Amino acid sequence: MPENIYIGSKPILNYVTALATAFQKDPTVNVLARGRAISSAVDVVEVCRRSFVKDINVDEILIGTEKMGEEYDLRNVSTIQIVLTKPT
User: Fold this and answer.
1) Are the C-beta atoms of residues 42 and 59 closer than 8 Å to each other?
2) What domains can be seen in the chain, in order of their start residue?
3) Which pLDDT does position 8 carry in this prediction?
4) Mean pLDDT of 21-45
5) Is 4 left (phi over 0), alpha (psi -120 to 50) or beta?
6) Beta strands in 7-73 (DSSP E)
């Protein structure tokens, strides 16, 4: 089962460190984000690819929409899943 890294509002380098650490445990890692954190997820992957773990492959990018909130406050939120692999 691949490791999952959920991107939120912390500084980008925190997630880059988590991603580099996750590759030590598993050769496949999913980077997941919703809403405004989607651009941060892309930044995390690019910083990691260019500076920390240079042999990462982007296998798949999945986008979607989730319904969030209560019955009267229902709204659509965009999601992204970036599937990364590192050759063994």
Assistant:
1) no
2) 3-85 (3.30.110.20)
3) 94
4) 94
5) beta
6) 28-34, 57-68
Residue 70: the pLDDT is: 87
Stated pTM of the model: 0.90
* Angstrom distances, CA of residue 71 to CA of 64, 75, 79: 20, 9, 20
3-class SS at 57? strand
Both tokens assigned to 65: 């929409």
Q: How many CA atoms lie within 13 A of 12 on its CB side?
A: 12
Tell me which residue has tokens 């089962």: 1
CA–CA distances in Å: residue 7 to residues 39, 72, 73, 84, 87 = 10, 27, 24, 15, 23
